[in-house]
Design goal:
single chain; alpha/beta; Enolase-like, domain 1; TIM Barrel; 7-stranded parallel beta sheet; 13 helices; 12 strands; binds magnesium ion; DgoD-like; Mandelate_racemase_N_dom; Mandelate_racemase_C
Length: 390
């Protein structure tokens, strides 16, 4: 079997409410859907996060084409090494989502050929359902409390909010609001996205601890692991690495520095599902749990990750997702959360099918105004960049 073509379709799916974080807000999610075609009529589907933009992903996919077309889609390790060595793609990260989408589509093909759900090929079902958090994106305390209440009513057990605003007291107030909305047993996770200096991180986390924190995600720069280890030694809340742990190579460094209690892993940033499994393995060997990070995904990428998470023991905390934000999807049977958990698809391959009408609708939405769903914040554009906060 040989790969004959890679087809890419950027789509823009709206959010129910804007996603707000330290660096701006966005109205919807742009992703690039990928179809890998073969000479035997089997087609695999994949999805790339539009990181850093859909244009970059589309250009990376065009650059991948001569390295991938003509290859056997079942030779995924060979394809990945071919891209890295023959294609001299030594500097991954910005090009990783494109490679991850091709990897995903190839796994879809392999599992379809085997007539098995992908989970079987990645180690089998360690668990039947996977836990996800409820993303509280509201800017103010009242909005945050209301969104947390909605998530609790839907049965989610873990709540995630961005922190790192100019005043620590404002963040503490929002954490308290989420606690009031989510209830006393809820797990609350805060993510500063590197916004704090070590001193600010220690002060902020200690101020939030009375409200009960499950994890504090990337409180300080992910590029200075000694700082993370310093903070980790001075707060009671476990730290979750994210910007420090984009790839398997980074995760090894996080482990070596003792910089975190849990580690984010992401097949989009690490160039494929096999690397997601490898990353989890590195952390498991160090006795650390992992959390699936999300740059935002639609139903295809979610299905792919579900298979790997279900087959990998140390995904024990709630994983990231955009369930609370997305207004729609591009697959015929969208994932339905039951008390914050998703079942692993049963069908062969990824077990999902593209809804052609929706793909066409959201491809048109992207084509009409490609920038409409990007992060935007007029204030942030004109204000001086002033991180980290002291
Ligand atoms: Mg994060």
């Amino acid at each position: 079997m040989r790969i004959t073509a890679i087809e890419a379709t950027p789509v823009a799916v709206p959010f129910r409410a804007d996603e707000v974080w330290a660096f701006g807000r966005r109205r919807g999610l742009v992703c690039v859907l990928v179809e890998v075609r073969t000479d035997e009529g089997v087609t695999g589907i994949g999805e790339a996060a539009a990181y850093p933009s859909a244009d970059v992903v589309l250009a990376a996919l065009r650059a991948l084409e001569p390295l991938v077309v003509g290859e056997d889609p079942t030779g995924i390790e060979r394809i990945t090494k071919r891209v890295e060595v023959v294609g001299t793609w030594h500097h991954m990260r910005n090009t990783s989502p494109a490679l991850a989408a091709v990897d995903m589509a190839c796994w879809d093909i392999v599992a379809k050929i085997c007539g098995q759900p992908l989970v079987t090929l990645f180690g089998g079902r360690f668990r039947d359902t996977v836990d996800f958090f409820h993303y509280v994106s509201g800017a103010g305390p009242a909005e945050a409390a209301e969104q947390a209440r909605e998530g609790a009513e839907r049965g989610f057990g873990t709540f995630y909010l961005k922190v790192g605003s100019p005043r620590i007291a404002d963040d503490v107030e929002r954490v308290a609001a989420v606690r009031s909305g989510a209830g006393p047993d809820a797990r609350i996770r805060v993510d500063a996205n590197e916004a704090w200096s070590p001193a600010a991180a220690i002060r902020a986390i200690r101020a939030m601890q009375p409200h009960g924190l499950e994890l504090a995600e990337q409180p300080v720069s992910g590029r200075n692991l000694a700082e993370m280890a310093y903070v980790r030694g001075r707060v009671d809340t476990p730290l979750l690495a994210n910007e420090a742990s984009w790839t398997r190579f980074d995760q090894l460094e996080v482990v070596r520095h003792g910089a975190a209690d849990a580690v984010s892993v992401d097949n989009q940033m690490d160039g494929g599902l096999l690397n997601l499994k490898r990353s989890a393995g590195i952390c498991e060997a160090a006795g650390l749990p992992v959390v699936k990070h999300s740059l935002g995904e639609l139903g295809v990428a979610m299905a792919a990750a579900l298979h790997v998470m279900a087959a990998t023991p140390n995904f024990i905390h709630a994983n990231q997702c955009y369930a609370s934000l997305l207004a729609d999807d591009v697959i015929t049977e969208p994932h339905v959360y039951d008390r914050g958990r998703l079942p692993v698809p049963d069908g062969p391959g990824l077990g999902v099918t593209l809804d052609r009408d929706k793909v066409a609708r959201y491809a048109e939405a992207y084509a009409k105004d490609p920038d409409a769903h990007a992060f935007h914040d007029e204030d942030a554009l004109t204000a001086p960049p002033s991180l980290p906060r002291l």
